[in-house]
Structures are given as C-alpha cells and as structure tokens.
Write a structure and sequence with these properties.
Helix content: 55-70%
Low-confidence stretches: none
Number of strands: 0
Radius of gyration: 23 Å
Structural class: mainly alpha
Order of helices and strands: HHHHHHHHHH
Length: 293
C-alpha cells in the first residue's frame, strides 16, 4: 500500500500549461502522500492500493532469498581464503553484504521492473504479472528491458552500509557507553539511521523508478537510457527538489522495517548475552566447591 503511493508520487512530473503532451502516464497529479492515497482510492477503490501486490511479495521473498544465499557464498569464500580462518570485521561484513546485494539484484531485478510497471499502469490498462512482463519484452528494449535500472540498483547497495554506519554513529552520540539498549532506543536509532540513508539515496531511488516505469507520453514511447537522463528530465521540468519526491512514504516504509529490524536484533543480542552470562555463572558456581576442597 505504501509502496504503491510512493511509486505513483515518484513517477509523476508536474505538467506545465505550455506542455503539449502529458509528462506522465497518469494525468492525475498528487500534491502529497495523503492526496495520492485519497485519489487512488477514489479512482480505483481500495484494491487500487494493492495493485502489483503479487509482484511485490514475489520480489521481497526472492530478493531476501537471493541476498542471504549469495551472502553465505561470498562470506564462506572470504573465510576460506584466509590463511588463518576468522570472522570478518565490520567493514568487511559491509563489503561482503554489498557484493551479495549486487549479485542478488542481477537475478531479481526483473520482478522489480514488472512490479513497478504494474503499479504505474492507468486504471483502464491494468494487466497481470505475466502480461506486464510480456509487454516489457515486446517493447523496443526486448529481453534486456527486464533489467532496466540495474546500474542504479547496484549503486543503491550502499544504502545498507550508510544505514549501519549512521546507526553506530548515532548510538555513540546519543547513548555513549551503553551496552544494552532498550527496545524504543533500538527502534529510534534504526528508524533515524534509515531515514538518513534514504534521504541521501532518494534521487537514485526516484531515477530507478523512472527507468523501470512505462515511458511518459511526452517522450512518444522513447524510454530513458540511464538514470542520469531521468534525473535531468525531472530537473528540467520540476527543478532539483523534485528528485526527492515520494520521500515521505519512502522514509515511512523504511522506518517501520528498519526500526523493527534493529529493535529485534538488539533484543536477540541482549537475550544471547544474558544466556551466555548465565551459563558462565553456572560453570563458575559448579567449579567453586571443587576448588575449595
């Protein structure tokens, strides 16, 4: 639901009175996230908020599976390449994660392309997952069209690294010397770090959506060739600040996911530390009677 609103906001370009053709697929212009939500419901009903949900679910599951699979592969290769096998440090973990994310994108981006197309289709031109995929393949791009936005996606693998770095920095500033964080503290740090990372990478996110959606009528069916071209098109018609459109729902989505993720991670970490401490205490207590003899 949030993703549909976010995508609609990110592909729209405000039309000027002097423009001969609509600049976006949909003539409806949204002034805010709430306005987009209201107009989508009025035009398509509540079901319209879930357009492309099958592709979204398939995309999330396949991306997560591919990421963790390739992460385990590259991590195992890294450890086995060491003279003395040892766990990688924080910087190396982030690097391995970026490599795994990049490889995963190569295999899963076709689902993202099809889902974005579905979520930006006008009311009278709705198509299913397979039909939308066939539309992409039958376009001028051919099969490579299923990998549109790949370069932007590869650059966006830095987003988790920025998130993690911001999380650690904010933790040092706001909770110096504190080992165990409360749930609300973990949630706040996760949400704040994701918001910062999203704000930094938002122009690329907007450009990626523009690449993957259907070309606007003003371009007469001519697709964008690169994310730089998308950015220049947006700046030309709306100004540089338009590169951050859809930021509110993008951050809202990230805050909910990342905040809950970090809260769960810290909770699990604290539980594991408590268990380890309990085991160590039990072993010491067991050894004391023997030492006292």
């Amino acid at each position: 639901m949030i993703r549909r609103v976010k995508t609609r906001l990110q592909v729209q370009v405000k039309r000027k009175s002097t423009d001969p053709e609509p600049l976006t697929i949909n003539d409806v212009h949204y002034t805010s996230s709430l306005d987009a939500f209201r107009k989508i419901v009025e035009d398509e009903g509540f079901a319209g908020l879930y357009s492309g949900i099958n592709g979204s679910l398939l995309g999330v599951s396949s991306t997560n599976f591919a990421y963790f699979y390739w992460y385990s592969v590259v991590r195992s290769l890294y450890i086995s390449s060491q003279t003395v096998p040892k766990s990688p440090g924080t910087i190396m973990e982030l690097s391995l994660g970026a490599v795994a994310g990049a490889v995963a994108q190569i295999f899963t981006i076709p689902v993202s392309v099809v889902t974005t197309r579905q979520q930006t289709q006008p009311k009278g031109d709705k198509k299913g997952l397979l039909d939308t995929g066939r539309e992409v393949v039958d376009s001028d791009d051919g099969w490579p069209g299923l990998w549109r936005g790949l370069k932007a996606s590869l650059v966006l693998v830095v987003n988790p690294a920025i998130t993690y770095g911001a999380y650690q920095r904010l933790r040092e500033i706001l909770f110096p010397g504190k080992t165990n964080l409360r749930p609300w503290e973990s949630f706040f740090l996760g949400a704040a770090s994701k918001a910062l990372a999203t704000a930094v990478t938002q122009p690329l996110i907007v450009a990626k959506v523009g690449l993957q959606s259907r070309p606007p009528p003003a371009r007469q069916g001519k697709p964008f060739k690169s994310f730089i071209e998308v950015m220049l098109y947006i700046i030309e018609h709306e100004g540089p600040l338009a590169l951050f459109k859809g930021l509110a729902p993008q951050i809202t989505k990230g805050i909910l996911v990342q905040g809950l993720l970090m809260m769960t991670k810290e909770r699990f970490r604290n539980t594991q530390l408590q268990k380890a401490a309990a085991v160590a205490t039990a072993q010491v207590n067991k050894a004391l009677p023997v030492l006292s003899k």
